[in-house]
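Recall that a protein's primary structure is simply its ordered list of amino acids. Everything else, from secondary elements to tertiary packing, is in principle encoded there. The following example makes that idea concrete.
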Amino acid sequence: MEETVATFEQWVRWVFDHPVATDVKDEWWWKDRADDEGGWLDRPPERALAFVISLFEDPTPYLSDYSDGQINQGLEFIVFSACSRHFSGLTDRSVDFELRSRCIRSLESLFRELIAQRTSDDVKIYTRPLDHMCDMLWDMVVKDAYDLKRNSDGTFRSVRDPEIDKVILGTLSRILAMPSIGCQQSALHGLGHLVWEAGIGTDVVQQYLDDHPSLRGDVREYALKAQAGKVL
């Protein structure tokens, strides 16, 4: 199949310019694309990661015309492996490490420049559209950051890239330091998964607890769960 060469601006419209579905089963990506995602991602992963970096490092100019609901829906499409292959390159060691790590670091800008201004102080009850992705993004980014390797007996095991996990940890640490309570909750969610999946991050959560002795009760309780790797 001949590759569809899309500009960055066309890609942004393809991801975000859709009505907001009222039900998960009606979200556009389940029905409005061919098996090859319309040809848009039938290409090396480097281009997908480069597009994501361009958007996440400076999101406001490109997303200002979209509603929070559209942005939430588009972000889910990008990061969720069941919806698209945008983030599949993060664990592909044949892809340049700097490109992969820059993509992860770009999430810090996405949170600071866009998500922090458009979420509530308790993202877990989903009172604003972007509370959903603020809360759940790391479920998809941290938990899915592994490759499946075949064992000699035909079974499979998950293998994580410790260098990528370090980049995730650094990014989460910086988001945790943002003044937005919603972003702090999000970072704690990601750190909880990182503690469970990679065995790192407990010291970052402890420093957060030490630095915030007057935390809201529910946030402190969630931080303790994250430190134990027991987030949902």
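Residues 8-227 form one domain. Residues 181-198 form the longest helix (18 residues).
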